[in-house]
Amino acid sequence: MVNHVTLDYLRLEVRRTLRDTGFMIGGVAMPVMMYLLFTNLGDESESGWKTTSMIGMAAYGAMGSALNTGGGVAEDRAIGWLRQLRITPMSPRQVVVGRALTGAVTVLPAILAVLAAGGLVNGVRLDAWKWAAIALLLWLGSIPFTLLGLGNGYRLTGQATGVVNMVCNLGLSVVGGLWFPLSLFPEWLRSVSSYVPTNRFAQLGTSVADGHAPALAAVLVLTLWLLAFGSYAVVSYRKSARTA
Q1: Per-domain residue ranges for the chain?
Q2: How far is CA 116 from CA 14, 105, 200, 227, 228, in A?
């Protein structure tokens, strides 16, 4: 269970993250600007694309914010903060849970900002329950990427974590179809995309926008990636504990 010690640590880390100007620009402002740019260039004004792109960019922003959690971990390792945490009453499990919860909280600004841009600027119209369900599913669906970021942060140096997270963010976004419609992809890439977590991540929201529940295949693929990234985070944390 999450006790008061973990909650205190969570509040500390959330404040640190939200005060980071780079996080607010790259994790929140950038997805909004990209969404508005991609949907308002040329003659592209079809409302269905504006809705799909809105969900894709909200997923992109959420993933970037989730991965950013790993960057904070790598910085903490470099300055010795993790060693200090190990001599506090907090258990290793509480430290990891606190960091994971930090990632879960800090993805919300990116999701809400892009959804707000879709509704207020691009005129996307959905039922109230759909807006709420899309935000909730994207929030929950971002957990695997938080674990991926944590795994990178516990295993790599600060500079390497930043590079690897950027490659993961860009690569998974493009191959997963968060930036461009999958219809533009060649057939083989569309087949690969169906196994990429970002593709299924966005499907959680697009399914609701279309008026039906997320497909079982999307849930299963994301669950498998959750287990894989979670195992990676645990192994990386144990390695950092031995070498720190």
Answers
A1: 4-243
A2: 22, 18, 22, 32, 32
Residue 241 CB neighbours (<10 A) = 14
**What are residue 7's phi and psi, to 5 degrees?**
-65, -40
* Cβ pair 6, 97 in contact under 8 A: yes
CA distance 123 to 50: 9
What does the alpha-carbon distance between residue 139 and residue 164 come to, in Å, rounded to a whole number?
A: 23
By CB atoms closer than 10 A (0-12, 13-18, 19+), residue 16 is: middle
| CA–CA distances in Å: residue 29 to residues 79, 109, 116, 135 | 28, 10, 12, 17
Exposure of 92 by Cβ count < 10 A (0-12 exposed, 13-18 middle, 19+ buried)? middle
Cα–Cα distance for residue pair 233/177, rounded to 1 Å = 25
Reported residue count of the chain is 244
Distance from C-alpha of 123 to C-alpha of 134, rounded to nearest angstrom: 17
Q: Which two tokens stand for residue 11?
A: 């509040």
* Selection from 91, 89, 93, 95 nearest residue 73 by Cα: 95
State the Rg of the chain over Cα.
18
Q: What is the C-alpha to C-alpha distance for residues 6 and 2, in angstroms, rounded to an integer?
A: 6
Report which residue type is found at 76: D
In tens digits, the chain (244 residues) has pLDDT values of 455 655 665 666 667 666 666 667 777 889 999 999 988 875 555 668 899 999 999 999 999 989 988 887 787 777 666 666 666 666 666 666 777 777 778 889 899 999 999 999 999 999 999 999 999 999 999 999 999 999 999 888 888 998 999 999 999 999 999 998 888 888 999 899 999 999 999 999 999 999 999 999 999 999 999 999 988 988 887 787 666 5
